[in-house]
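Shift notes (night). Ran Aldo/keto reductase while the centrifuge was going.
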Amino acid sequence: MEHFISRRDIIKSMGVSGCAMLLNPLLSHAKTNQKMMLQRAIPASGEKIPVIGLGSWQQFDVGQTAAERTPLKEVLKKMEELGGKLIDASPMYGRSEEVIGELTTELKNNDRFFFATKVWTTGKQEGIDQMNDSFKKMGRKKMDLMQVHNLQDWQTHLKTLKDWKAQGKVKYIGVTHYTDSAHSRLEQIVKSKEIDFVQFNYSIRSRNADKSLLNAAKDSGVAVIINEPFEQGALFRAVKGKELPAFAADYGISSWAQYFLKYIISHEAVTCAIPGTSDVKHLVDNLGAGLGKLPDAAGRKKMVEWIDKI
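Came back to this:
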């Protein structure tokens, strides 16, 4: 929860006018054209998805009470309203799959999202059983994206997923990890061209993927999902009490979240970043990073230099 508190503190410090500045640009765009958020094509098909999605680790692992679920329901409603699409989950994330499935069913918008979940177990039959359970929990007959979580028994599960893709049970398949140490293995798999998506960690300070993984994905025609965009809140703690640099306005950046996310999605290999949140204001802020101008190479360098100095 630390990164939510840190961002909340930052937004509080901006006052009412500051919050309005964060929220109004995206809301006004949404009223005129909900499709204005930048979208990127999935190389395997050409299908386009918005560049900002939603992660569910911790935030959606809740019980049955209205106090726990109402804020999440509001997040999902607002996400659809503002043109968001990709929601990422996993059996590792406790009740997240079940909560997402139940809330989107209640909202009658289950089929309007791009659902991405994972298999996180060892053994062929164990993987099949777990994935079928995920279908049931998320209320899906066909999953948009099924990924092998943290490369656990990935060779076994990819064989199953290739069969399921051929059968039409899953639309896309992929692999994930969240540490720099896994990037070389991910790159090997990416270059095999046997997957549609790869998911890994990348941020304005954690740039190991810049060495070769991002370019390998681009060259191999593999879509990229970025996790840990805020470094579990460490980025917000690093900039607490600091004002955005003046040049941020050149890219329509009105918050630190947008600064961090715009850096990520400005890399042409990135298809979607998935910050997690259970707060509607944070969701609106995050989605705002998908609007307007993105920094070019010179702008990205300037953004990194500023962050590296703090």
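The beta strands are 39-41, 48-50, 54-55, 86-88, 114-119, 143-148, 170-176, 197-201, 223-227, 272-273. The first helix runs from residue 2 to 32.
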